[in-house]
Amino acid sequence: MSSSVKFSHPLRSWFDSMLRSIHLTRQVVRCQSSANKLSPEESKKQAAQLAIQSIKDMGSIFGSGSDEATQPIDTTPIWNNPAEFASLSLLHQGQVLKELQDKYDKSWCKLTLADKRLGYYIAYGNWGVRDKFDNWSTTTAPYDLPFTVPSKVKDSNPTATTVIKKLPPVVLAETEVRKPQFDFKRMDPVTKVFLYLTLFITVAALIRDKKVGEDGMPREIVIEDPYEIERNRRNQEEEELKQRLMQKMKEEQEKKNQKKWYFLWLK
């Protein structure tokens, strides 16, 4: 190793330790081979094994440090205060969920109040589906009661012949306080913005097409080749010259054919 190479302090100490370990390994192998008179192949094999073991020992130095972010945590504070679950890392949240799921997989009779509270917090947050509930201390019916209070009785004195009809089905989730959540006709503000923007662009495009018409079409850019123009002009001149010659020959031929009737008598 050249002396010009410089390492940081931890890496340099590790490198020096490895060199010393390999040097000691070679000395041990030489001593054992001289004492036991091992063959050259056995000496090389033993040296390789000791070198690998030395590297493993040095690697364990770097792996001995514990990283708190990857180590399991004590989940007791989470059970005592479920609000701390949100501040955990994804790895530690998975640890809490695993422990809670193990309890849920067993008999529900064994679940404690803390287990139920933590499960409810993970599912719904602080309030969740009971958001907007404010009649905790009143004697009125709770908001999640899906029936009319007081109930409408058809007949206060029913008899054996009184007809009892089946009550209409009731969706327990669609209570008075939750009706806005299940109103599918309403749209969230982001969807409204995109919908109105799309509608505006469509109308603007139609108006532009109607007003501009064909005049607003982009003009086609024609690139003219001067050599091609010159070649076409030369071909056209040659064609005109050829036509003039043909016309002249045709006129001369007609003149020859236009002879008097007495030409033969004179001849």
Explain the overall architecture:
With 267 residues, the chain is an all-alpha fold. The chain has a domain at 71-131. The chain is built from eight helices and no strands. It starts with 8 loop residues before the first helix and ends with a helix. The model is unreliable at 1-11 (pLDDT under 50). Residues 231-258 form a coiled coil.
How do the strands and helices of this protein lay out in sequence?
Elements: H1 9-36, H2 40-63, H3 76-80, H4 90-105, H5 113-124, H6 189-212, H7 226-257, H8 263-266
The overall strand count is 0
Strand-residue proportion: under 5%
Structural class computed from helices and strand pairing = mainly alpha
Global outline? flat
Question: Major beta sheet, specifics?
Answer: none
> Distance N terminus to C terminus?
126 Å
The total count of helices amounts to 8
Order of helices and strands: HHHHHHHH
**Approximate helicity band:** 40-55%
Protein traits:
267 residues; mainly alpha; 8 helices; flat
Brief characterization of the structure:
The protein is built from eight helices and no strands.
